[in-house]
Design goal:
Blueprint: H1 4-10, H2 25-46, H3 55-65, H4 78-103, H5 106-109, H6 114-139, H7 145-155, H8 160-188, H9 196-206, H10 209-227
Helix pairs in contact: 2-3, 2-4, 3-8, 3-9, 4-7, 4-8, 6-7, 6-8
């Protein structure tokens, strides 16, 4: 089922958890199920207070739980998960952008978090180095940066059309790609629950690959121009 009843069936009751660990993907999924994925992704990509939430590992673990091979007996439904994840990621990003257009850089300026300030600097570097379209896509794959980039893009006047087209492109690749990666590995690897933590760490590391590859390519291009 993919309607409201189907979504409800995939969500574990919050009352089964005496305390929810917001930094643990498995704890969040056990407590809130599919609907929790959408809420977490919206908060992580749209609200500055969500910068600490585990977006990458949440998506990957949720995809894994769709196979029914993880411990605890929790199983999610793949189609509702893909839909909710995409909606949460895209709506959150657009919301963050609109907040930035309204509030300018005031929200980031008032923040005391070193991680947020570092993320803001990296987001500005992305915009300066790669331009609007490429930066919007790349930012989606970098933790913390994907939180601060959206309001920063709004505050710096990135055109609405450009931002929307490319945040949708990057958001769909990011959200569905990580869910399907978890689902594919869970379907093909026996006793996958034994390797859950190392695989989550690997996914987080891989999320930095697009940015690292683009940075390396840019450095080679600048070096070539300098020699020429």
């Amino acid at each position: 089922m993919t309607g409201p009843a189907g979504l409800a069936a995939t969500a574990a009751p919050a009352t089964s958890q005496s305390a929810v660990n917001l930094l643990s993907a498995q704890s969040l999924l056990s407590a809130f199920g599919v609907l929790g994925v959408g809420v977490v992704l919206f908060a992580e990509t749209g609200l500055l207070i969500g910068f600490f939430l585990p977006g990458d590992s949440l998506l990957f673990t949720a995809g894994l739980l769709c196979t029914g091979t993880a411990p605890g007996g929790l199983r999610l439904s793949l189609t509702p998960l893909l839909l909710v994840a995409a909606v949460g990621a895209l709506a959150g990003s657009q919301c963050g952008y609109l907040i930035g257009r309204k509030a300018g850089g005031a929200l980031l300026d008032r923040s005391d978090s070193p991680r947020l300030r570092q993320g803001a600097r990296r987001a500005e570097e992305l915009l300066e180095r790669y331009g609007h379209a490429k930066a919007v896509v790349l930012a989606r794959f970098v933790p913390v940066v994907r939180t601060v980039f959206n309001p920063l893009a709004g505050a710096l006047g990135v055109p609405v059309r450009t931002f929307t087209v490319w945040q949708v492109t990057g958001g769909l690749v990011w959200s569905t790609g990580l869910v399907l990666a978890g689902y594919a590995l869970g379907s093909s690897l026996p006793n996958v629950d034994h390797y859950l933590l190392p695989m989550v760490a690997l996914i987080v590391a891989l999320s930095l690959v697009p940015l690292a590859a683009e940075f390396s390519r840019s450095r080679r291009a600048r070096a070539k121009e300098a020699r020429g």
